[in-house]
Amino acid sequence: MKTLTNKNVILGVSGSIAAYKAPDIVRRLQDLGAEVRVVLTQSGSQFVTELSLQVTSKNKVHHNLWDKEAELSMGHIELAKWADAILIAPASANTIANLALGKANDLLSSVVLANDCPLLIAPAMNQQMYRADSVQENLNTLIRQQATIIQPESGEQACGDIGEGRLAESVDIAQQVSMLFQSTKLSGKKVLITLGATIEAIDPVRFLSNHSSGKMGSALSDACIEAGAQVTLIHGNIGINLNPKATAISAMSAEQMYQAVMSNIAGQDIFIACAAVSDYCIKNVEKNKIKKLNENLILELTPTKDILKKVCQLTQKPICIGFAAETQNLTENAKNKLKNKGCDAIILNDVSKPDFGFKSDKNEVLFLTTKNSQKIEKNSKQKIARKIIDVLTEKFL
Ligand SMILES: Cc1cc2nc3c(=O)[nH]c(=O)nc-3n(C[C@H](O)[C@H](O)[C@H](O)COP(=O)(O)O)c2cc1C
């Protein structure tokens, strides 16, 4: 897996002569696995065409804050939420000044203001402009606001001057973006995650199951790996590919999942129970296919083992995080689950809504502990997973 796989990067291109290099920056980001969307300022479009950026990024180029169609769904906010990182390359002196002042007078500055994701700025300008006190002061303001400045290079410039201000090389810029995601928050930690839906046999051809896709657990596995953890995944039925850096163990029924978890729990630092495990299984599984008769059929169900509760009861228990998929009395049910299972936190998701939760690529969750709760707003499961890992490390490590 590449360092920017599953990462969404907005590339802001402003009005510097170096904007002609922007399509190459798009390509270098894609080489590392990123999905790129470009926001082009009006001045930027004087130096590079929208078409070349559209072709390289394979996405529509955004340039207009007043795009009526896009703004029907508050396009600039949607775009900001989509991004895992915003890179401005090249960044003109004017755009740098706008950002330092917190202005929102065009699409690029509005998108930057509407996002709390990492911001990287690669200045490119004449050496005299770059040395100007105002430009340096603006860059320092942005550094204080946690932006990363990708230092320009020294050398001969388009205007014939020699000095510092040339845009950094495209591959170095892409590399700096990828370094953002190489966190060490969970380095040296072992994480065990269950995911997907369990399957309970009724007879050799039929089963009881649920709608869980495994997407949330898989996003959590990516986020843990990104943060440096060693991840083991115990999965039921899933419709997705898992991160090859994780050790994957298949366990289809609740009983098999219980056995797999118990055999692998020793030495784990964190246990995340994300699988949708059946609460019941069939008491007597038929050896042969049940034939259709013209009368009611009663299946007797018996409770399965409570995997999360059993792990929480271990003497050397890891940090235990459970998921609660609820459709009613959400917080109350989640609080009860937190108490009954004895786990450290419950991540509550409302699975009654069609646009997120089960099967969907999006989610919205509440991270609940005995002391407090923290809402993680609707976003892609990848971004929700990274936020969950941030909250988890803040609270427990
Ligand atoms: C030919 C030409 C080249 C320019 N090159 C740069 C440059 O390399 N860096 C810069 O900061 N501004 C440069 N400018 C000035 C910016 O294009 C100008 O400040 C513009 O307002 C920037 O708008 P933006 O920040 O919204 O993209 C150049 C202008 C012209 C006409």
Automatic annotation (TrEMBL):
Pathway: Cofactor biosynthesis; coenzyme A biosynthesis; CoA from (R)-pantothenate: step 3/5; Cofactor biosynthesis; coenzyme A biosynthesis; CoA from (R)-pantothenate: step 2/5. Transmembrane segments: none annotated. The active site is at C159. Its EC number is 4.1.1.36, 6.3.2.5. CTP binds at D279, K289, F323, K337, K341. InterPro entries: CoaB-like_sf, CoaBC, DNA/pantothenate-metab_flavo_C, Flavin_trans-like, Flavoprotein. Its cofactor is FMN; Mg(2+). Residues 186-393 form the DNA/pantothenate metabolism flavoprotein C-terminal domain. Gene3D superfamilies: CoaB-like, Flavin prenyltransferase-like. Keywords: Decarboxylase, Flavoprotein, FMN, Ligase, Lyase, Magnesium, Metal-binding, Multifunctional enzyme. GO terms for cellular component: phosphopantothenoylcysteine decarboxylase complex. This is Coenzyme A biosynthesis bifunctional protein CoaBC. It comes from Candidatus Thiodubiliella endoseptemdiera.
